[in-house]
Design goal:
Blueprint lengths: L1 E5 L6 H12 L3 E3 H11 L2 H12 L5 H12 L8 E4 L5 H13 L6 E6 L2 H15 L6 H15 L1 H7 L4 E5 L4 H16 L2
Parallel strand pairs: 1-3, 1-4, 2-3, 4-5
Helix pairs in contact: 1-9, 2-3, 4-5, 6-7
Length: 191
Amino acid sequence: MNLLVLGPQGAGKGTQAKRIAADYNLPHISTGDMFRAAIAAGTELGKRVAPILASGELVPDQLTVALIQDRLGDPDAVGGFILDGFPRNEAQADALDEMLARIGRGLDAILFFDLPDDVATERMLSRAVAEGRADDTPDVIERRLAIYHAETEPIVEHYRATGKLVPLHAELDVDTVYSEVQDALGMVGNR
C-alpha cells in the first residue's frame, strides 16, 4: 500500500503515520525526520537544510525530490510506503506523480488531516516544549502555517481530483483519528 499524508504542521500526520507503519508493516518516510537526522549527524545535507528549517522555509524542491527518490528505492519501500512531509507544493506533487509513474507505482490513498490553525499552533507550541523542537517557535509556526496555506494546501485539490483523497478530522483525539484512518485503509484494501 502506497500512502501519502497531507495536512498542516501539528495535525498529527507523523503520529498517525507511525501507527500505520507499525500496524501495516510499511516504512514511514518523513522528510522532516530525514532532514533533522541529517542536521544532527552534521552531514553536508544537514548543513544545507539547517538554516532553511530554522527560518520556517521549505527545503528546495531539487533536494527534497532527490532525497525521496533515493528513499523509495530502498528495499523496505518496495512493498509500500507512507510519505509524510512531501510533497509540500505543486512542483513537488508533479515531481512525485512523475517519479511514481516512472517506477510503475501509484498512490493508493491520500490521507488529509484537516486542522484549524489555532489548534495546529497550540499543538506545535506544546510539541516544542515536550520534544525540545527548536523549529517550533511562535514566529516560525506562523510562517510555516502561512507557507502551508499558500503552497501546500492547494495540492489538496490536486489529489482530490484523483478520487483517492480521504479527509480526516485531525482536531479529534489520537485514537478517534486513527479509527478514521483504519476505516479509510479498510476501504482501500477492498478496492
